[in-house]
Design a protein that fits this description.
The chain is α+β, with helices and mostly antiparallel strands. The protein is about 25% helix and about 20% strand. The protein is built from two helices and four strands.
Length: about 60
């Protein structure tokens, strides 16, 4: 599974970081980013939850 955050859509709510801090972090500007585009298998369920819960639908799966 691969993910990325659309930085033009993200508004920095931080929901993804709350749900899966192993995959997401916040930039210095307060917006989300994927730490690595390749999601480790053990974090796929939490990543999918973050995708579903993103208020701006800014997280994309490749």
């Amino acid at each position: 599974m691969k993910v990325w955050v659309d930085d033009g859509t993200c508004r920095g709510h931080g929901m993804c970081l709350t749900l899966c801090p192993e995959v997401f972090s916040l930039t210095d500007d307060g917006y989300a980013e994927a730490i690595s585009s390749d999601v480790p298998t053990e974090f796929e369920a939490a990543t999918r939850e973050a995708i579903a819960c993103c208020p701006e639908q800014a997280i994309k799966e490749n």
